[in-house]
Amino acid sequence: MSVTTAELAPSEPIVPTTDTAAELRPARRWERLALVVLLLGTGVAYLWNITVNAMGNSFYAAAAWSGAQNWKALLFGSLDPGNFITVDKPPVSQWVMGLSGQIFGFSSASMLAPQAIMAVGAVALMYGAVTRVTLSRGAGLLAGLVLAVTPVVALMFRFNNPDAVMVLLMTAAAYCTVRALPRASLRWIVLAGVALGFAFLAKMLEGLMVLPALGLAYLIVAPTTLRNRLLHSLAALAALIVSSGWFVVLTILWPADSRPYLAGSKDNTFMDLVLGYNGFARYLGKNHMGGNAKNPLDLPQGYQIPEAVRQGGFGPGGFGNGPDRLFTGEIGFEISWLLPAALLAFVLILVARGRRPRTDLIRGAGLVFGLWLVIDGVLFAAMKSGMHAYYTLAIAPAIAGCFALGVHEIWRRRAEAFGRVGGAALIVAAGVWGFVLLQRNSEWQPWLHWTILAIAVLAAIGLLVLALPPTARWERVRGRATTVLLVAGVLAGLAASTAYAAATLPQSHTGGSPVVGPPRPKKAGPTDQFRKQLELLFGGHTDPDLVALLQTTHTRWSAAIDRSSPAASLELASRTPVLAIGGFTSADPVPTLPQFEDMVRDHEITYYLVPEVKLPDSWRVDSKPADPAAPAQSDPQQGIWRPAGNKQILDWVTSHYDRTQKFGDLAVYDLTVQPH
Question: Which distant-in-sequence residues (6+ apart) come within 8 Å of 97 by Cβ?
Answer without folding.
Answer: 60, 63, 64, 67, 110, 111, 114, 115, 160
